[in-house]
Amino acid sequence: MSQSQNIQGRTEPSLDVAPTPQNTPLDTGVLTNRPANLGQPTVETLAEGEESEGDEEDVGGMNPASLLAKNPALLALAQSKLEDLIGRSSGYIESLPAPVRRRIDGLKGVQVEHSKIESEFQMAILELEKKFLSKFQPLYERRQAIIAGEAEPTESEVEAGKASDSDDEEEDEEEGAKVEEINDDKDAAGIKGIPEFWLTALKNHVPISETITERDEEALKLLTDVKLSYLEDGQPGFKLHFVFAPNDFFEDTELTKTYYYQEQVGYGGDFVYDKAIGHEIKWKEEKDLTKKAEIKKQRNKTTGRTRVIRKVVPTDSFFNFFKPPQPPTPESLEASDVDEDELEELDARLETDYQIGEDFKEKIIPRAVDYFTGKALRYEDDFEEEDDEDFEDEDYDEDDDDEDAPEGQADAAAANPDCKQQ
């Protein structure tokens, strides 16, 4: 399934937009009558090294760009005003003749029918996913039996697994040597199945690994399986099942989390997340991994006596995954005292929560062994491209590279920066 739309339809507005009826001037006569040979605006083009007399004092003795750069509050205000204009009608549609407006309304009606078929398409894909999950299920059960030590892989399964890594023969040989060394030092007969399989797999998924604390690891070592099921009665959505061995942390042996899609698809034709419902974990006494005790000493200023205060406060934990953030209600969005920063933070938390749920469904459950071995990391988008935001601008003077070069070579280097002196 393709990635779902942004949560609750909230998207960041973009100022770099193509001309539309919303931002096209009502009076377009000037543009219509422009000469065919009129290209860029008639502003004198400066050659390199030349300066314009009005560069530094354009508006009130200051360049507008410099004015905005030196006043962040003014820049933010200008951006806010521009964002308010996005999506508003400029009057262009209303100015068209009635027959043309009627045809546009007709096109909107055609689009409505298109949206209905998109919904049918997504529901059909969801039904197909359900059908194929039943085909995958025996493989997941076989995987679980091998992990738990209830069964051993057959020779054909082992050979197929080795063949799948034929592109990395050298790496496999090195890993094989390491495993042999370990087996020589330890008695392998006492090892059952694949210890800490799911903990290792989860720690190799970067967003999830960032939520796992040292305290969580003791509980996650007892995670024996992660399963997927789909909702019944035509409700679009899915449920994640985390199966644990009996443990000292909580009474439950299975924790669940359910993700609901909205019944109507989003503008892009994909399902839109509606909400997520987590499992209320029944923690054993003083074993709640989502909380920690803070102990403080207080001294009485009068008597000098001290007392110890013990306070339980929330803390970071993987198990907060089962207490998902909830989308804002319409009433909270309409409130006059709504905090935009808090809404943005909530949006980010919801986006992260839904994305992790989708990753469990689309990546981790189907390819758990690839996350255990780390093979899946080669295919993660985060490791293929570096975001421009990860780089900071630094002042750079090209003359610094050429100041020691002989006269003439420096000019050549400036003219052709790709050409390096040998």
Total count of strands = 6
* Cα gyration radius (Å): 31 Å
For the record, the CATH architecture of the domain at 194-384 stands as 2-Layer Sandwich
Structural class: alpha+beta
Strand-and-helix sequence, N→C?
A: HHHHHHHHHHEEEEEEHHHHH
**Binned strand content:** 5-15%
Q: Provide the residue-averaged pLDDT.
A: 76
Q: Termini, distance in Å? A: 53 Å
The CATH superfamily of the domain at 194-384 turns out to be: Nucleosome assembly protein
Q: Count of DSSP helices?
A: 15
For this structure, the CATH topology of the domain at 194-384 is Arylsulfatase, C-terminal domain
Adjacency order of strands in the biggest sheet: 1-2-3-4
Largest sheet: 4 strands, antiparallel
CATH class of the domain at 194-384: Alpha Beta
The helix fraction, in percent, is 40-55%
- The parts where pLDDT drops under 50 for at least 5 residues are 1-57, 175-182, 382-386, 400-422
Broad shape: extended
Write up this protein.
Residues 1-11, 20-43 have a biased composition (Polar residues). Belongs to the nucleosome assembly protein (NAP) family. This is Nucleosome assembly protein 1-like 1. Residues 47-59, 166-175, 381-406 have a biased composition (Acidic residues). InterPro entries: NAP-like_sf, NAP_family. Helices cover 41% and strands 11% of the residues. The protein is an alpha+beta fold and 422 residues long. It has a domain at 194-384: Nucleosome assembly protein (Arylsulfatase, C-terminal domain, 2-Layer Sandwich), CATH 3.30.1120. The strands form 2 sheets. The chain has a 4-stranded antiparallel sheet with strand order 1-2-3-4. The longest helix is centred in the first third of the chain and has 51 residues, at 98-148. The radius of gyration is 31 Å and the shape is extended. The protein starts with 28 loop residues before the first helix and ends in a 7-residue tail after the last helix.
